[in-house]
Design goal:
- The protein is an alpha/beta fold.
- It has helices at about 5-20, 45-50, 70-85, 90-100, 110-120, 180-200, 255-265, 275-285, 295-305, 370-390, and strands spanning about 25-30, 35-40, 55, 60, 125-135, 140-150, 155-165, 220-225, 235-240, 245, 270-275, 310-320, 330-340, 345-355.
- The strands form three sheets. Strands 8, 9, 10, 11, 12, 13 and 14 form a seven-stranded mixed beta sheet that branches.
- The longest helix has 18 residues, at about 370-390.
- It is globular.
């Protein structure tokens, strides 16, 4: 090739390369945090590959009251997200962001952090994980609360999952289904949560339209429902869950009950639950301390700053897990009150108390082995009646 033709040929090849359009069905590789995801051009997944749903995975919050495998849980979450093709904000970027914002609390995010996450890191969601309980057994037990919160001007709960697992939940024939190691039950719990999360990105989780009360052994023992309570109907309702007072011996029981009700309310159609991190930030800013429950002046302040239709609060009297397989039961007891913004009255109140062996008569069939699993059902029984019960 002559020296005069060389530059012309190179220019022609560059032009052809720039104008090249891959045919539909052609494959290319997209790097995702140390892994690669193969996506077909022209398929429905191609657009999401070019603009991945980037998630910031916060350090695990420990609400168990004892040391726990926080790093192991986070590592399993990171690997599981990548394996499912979900992009994760690099650790160095997250550490830099948290240092700049002096972010120490990892149990939620406020409005300022939600905006900053989107603007400075490009993340579209923040994954918040709380360890509720962990016991090595035998049998091993674990309880987790995991939620995905959107970033931007108005942080919203896109997805949430409560998990309470015991190694002997499904023993099977001759005990072949029993899980004996804490590593295995941890792996299964994280996998179950991420399988559910993967189905909820980016649109968010499916909502339940509650039409009637199913009954069941976890229904509240007593309750009052005002005709003024309007929730779960055709009109969207905003609910703020205020941390429960804890008068029992279980550390962080009030925060745990708060999260279980956030989880259950977020699953109901036409119910918007305010991110707990936003509620916490406003309570700190207003210096609200609840010594004997939520007072009328405090409720008025929270209604004005949170712009919610309802405030849900309560009291936890007992929240106990039992370590081991036999000889004891999980126990949970709590009360709930709901305040209405318009009337400034209590429009719902209830009391709930259950043991893990309630309604069990035949060889332990149907026994609930963890306080988390039981609390989740008890909270749903309250929410179900709040929405569907008519008086």
């Amino acid at each position: 090739m002559s020296s005069r033709k060389g530059p012309a040929v190179l220019l022609l090849l560059a032009c052809l390369g720039l104008s090249f359009i891959p045919p539909a069905g052609a494959e290319f590789k997209v790097g995702v945090e140390g892994a690669s995801a193969t996506v077909k051009v022209g398929s429905d997944n191609a657009a999401s590959a070019r603009e991945p749903f980037l998630i910031a995975l916060l350090p695990v919050e420990n609400l168990s009251g004892r040391p726990g495998p926080l790093k192991e849980i986070r590592q399993l979450l990171t690997e599981g997200l990548i394996r499912r093709g979900i992009a994760v904000l690099p650790e160095r970027d997250l550490e830099g962001f948290m240092a700049r914002k002096r972010m120490r609390y990892t149990g939620g995010i406020n409005r300022e952090l939600a905006q900053a996450f989107l603007q400075e890191t490009g993340t579209k969601g923040v994954l918040i994980t709380s360890l509720e309980y962990m016991s090595e057994g035998p049998p091993p037990k674990i309880s987790l609360l995991v939620r995905l919160v959107s970033t931007g001007d108005q942080p919203a709960i896109l997805w949430m999952k409560s998990l309470g697992m015991s190694g002997d939940d499904h023993p099977g024939i001759l005990g072949l289904g029993v899980i004996w190691t804490p590593e295995e039950i941890l792996r299964r719990a994280v996998g179950t949560a991420l399988d559910s999360l993967a189905l909820s990105i980016p649109a968010g989780m499916d909502r339940v339209a509650v039409r009637s009360v199913r009954g069941g052994k976890f229904r509240p023992k007593r309750f009052f429902r005002s005709q003024e309570l309007a929730i779960g109907g055709d009109r969207p309702v905003t609910v703020a869950v205020v941390p429960f007072m804890n008068i029992g011996t279980r550390k962080n029981a009030g925060s745990l009950m708060d999260l279980h009700f956030v989880d259950r309310l977020a699953q109901a159609v036409n119910v918007r639950v305010i991110e707990p991190g936003v509620v916490r930030e406003e309570m700190l800013r207003l210096r609200i301390i609840m010594q004997d429950g939520l007072s009328d002046p405090q409720a008025g302040l929270l209604f004005s700053v949170l712009e919610s239709d309802l405030l849900l609060s309560g009291l936890v009297a007992e929240y106990q897990d039992f370590e081991g397989g036999t000889g004891g039961q999980a126990r949970v007891a709590f009360s709930v009150q709901v305040f209405d913004m318009k009337s400034r009255r209590v429009v719902w109140s209830s009391r709930s108390y259950n043991r893990g062996d309630d309604g069990v008569f035949f060889f332990g069939v149907g026994e609930v082995k963890t306080a988390a699993a039981m609390t989740s059902e008890m909270a749903w029984a309250v929410v179900e009646r709040m929405i569907s019960e008519k008086r």
